[in-house]
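ARCHIVE CARD
CATEGORY: sequence design from structure
SOURCE FIELD: tokenized fold
FIELD CONTENT:
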């Protein structure tokens, strides 16, 4: 089993590196002439994603090296994990900032529009490249720094059936899941921003708790006092469903779409926010 995990991980790294090289060739040399027009948009998204993915990957490696150095005496022991925590925080800020910046740049190059598909594509490519850097860093760390410690741990707890590659695999899967949650949260916020803009409101209002809810209530044409009703047990369920249904109607959607907005918001909000569909005038809906 351990051997199979090791083979799978090594194969994944090789495939990822090959895909990255292939993407770089397409970006810098260009696709075949017969397909150039059809793939222009994808190339733009891919070029932005690869560029920011490489930047984030380099930041990841630098922060990882500094953290490893801090753990081996480069910094005073008393400050050791403060440095690590600080760098982990910086890494998360960089990750969110770079994802947001990449989407913003694509919007700028595409007349202020980014589709749900392109938002996911750009985000996944950036995070995928970063994972390649992370796996490579973990492998180097194991081979040259922590091999003896890991081996000692395996000898101490043989019943745990530990291996270096299994540890890396578990850490990588956890990191990927967290990254996906971060990506879809960012896309969700971007979708609300676009929805607010379509309604003639300030997009930044989507980022401010409480005020964003008040703005949505205003968009659907209801008084601000409805916000108070959303804190009354049981009554709040009725008013939340009501507001979301009214919002769906502003996009010409049925009650079925309301259910999607309520239970799968990270999919259904981008489907209206990150689309070219505009809001219907309130007088044509209510």
């Amino acid at each position: 089993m351990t051997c199979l995990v090791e083979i799978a991980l090594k194969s994944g790294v090789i495939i990822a590196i090959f895909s990255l090289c292939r993407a770089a060739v397409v970006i810098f040399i260009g696709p075949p002439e017969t397909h150039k027009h059809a793939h222009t948009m994808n190339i733009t998204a891919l070029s932005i994603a690869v560029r920011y993915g490489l930047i984030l990957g380099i930041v990841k490696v630098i922060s990882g090296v500094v953290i490893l150095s801090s753990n081996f005496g480069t910094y005073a022991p008393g400050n050791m994990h403060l440095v690590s925590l600080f760098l982990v925080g910086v890494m998360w800020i960089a990750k969110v900032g770079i994802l947001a910046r990449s989407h913003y740049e694509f919007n700028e190059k595409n007349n202020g529009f980014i589709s749900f598909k392109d938002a996911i594509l750009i985000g996944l490519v950036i995070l995928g490249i970063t994972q390649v850097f992370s796996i490579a860093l973990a492998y180097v760390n194991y081979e040259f720094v922590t091999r003896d410690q890991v081996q000692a741990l395996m000898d101490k707890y043989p019943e745990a059936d530990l291996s270096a590659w299994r540890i890396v695999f578990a850490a990588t899967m956890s990191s990927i899941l967290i990254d996906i949650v971060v990506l879809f949260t960012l896309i969700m916020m971007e979708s609300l921003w676009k929805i607010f803009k379509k309604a003639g409101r300030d997009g930044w209002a989507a980022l401010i708790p409480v005020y964003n809810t008040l703005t949505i209530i205003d968009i659907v044409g209801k008084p601000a006092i409805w916000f108070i009703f959303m804190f009354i047990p049981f009554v709040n369920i009725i008013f939340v469903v009501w507001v979301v249904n009214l919002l769906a109607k502003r996009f010409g959607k049925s009650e079925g779409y309301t259910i999607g907005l309520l239970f799968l918001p990270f999919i259904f909000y981008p489907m209206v926010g990150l689309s070219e569909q505009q809001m219907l005038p309130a007088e044509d809906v209510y």
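CARD ANNOTATION: Residues 2-191 form one domain. The chain has two domains: 2-191, 199-284.
SHELF: design records, drawer C
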